[in-house]
Amino acid sequence: MSPALSSLKPMEVIGVLQKLGFIEMRQSGSHKIFRHSENKRIIPVPIHGHRDIKKGTLHSIIKQSGVTRDEFIALLKR
């Protein structure tokens, strides 16, 4: 059984996305928009002050990134 994924700060999620090859393209209001350098996937990440990213939004970001939850957690710990 994989470990439970707790809520994360936006900068933690951004760090993992950057490890996966996503680069920041622009910021639209309170969302930073990332695009993968090879497969052109686009992922918006909400930046709402110092609040954690909600669990459902976090699961959506992981799904859009193209990796499993376990792979995402492993990159988070590096």
List keywords for this structure.
3-stranded antiparallel beta sheet; 38% helix; alpha+beta; 78 residues; 3 helices; Metal Transport, Frataxin, Chain A
Helix-strand makeup class: alpha+beta
Task: State the low-pLDDT regions, or none.
Answer: none
- CATH A-level architecture: 2-Layer Sandwich
Strand content: 15-25%
Write down the secondary-structure element order: HEEEHH
pLDDT averaged over residues: 91
CATH class: Alpha Beta
Order of strands, widest sheet: 1-2-3
Q: Count of DSSP E strands? A: 3
Short description:
The protein is α+β, with helices and mostly antiparallel strands and 78 residues long. It is built from 3 helices and 3 strands.
Fold and architecture overview:
The chain is an alpha+beta fold and 78 residues long. It has one domain (10-77): Hypothetical protein (Metal Transport, Frataxin, Chain A, 2-Layer Sandwich), CATH 3.30.920.30. The chain is built from 3 helices and 3 strands; from the N terminus they run H-E-E-E-H-H. The protein has helices spanning 10-19, 55-65, 69-77, and strands spanning 22-28, 31-36, 42-46. Strands 1-2-3 form a 3-stranded antiparallel sheet. A hairpin with a 5-residue loop joins strand 2 and strand 3 (42-46). The model has no long low-confidence stretch (mean pLDDT 91).
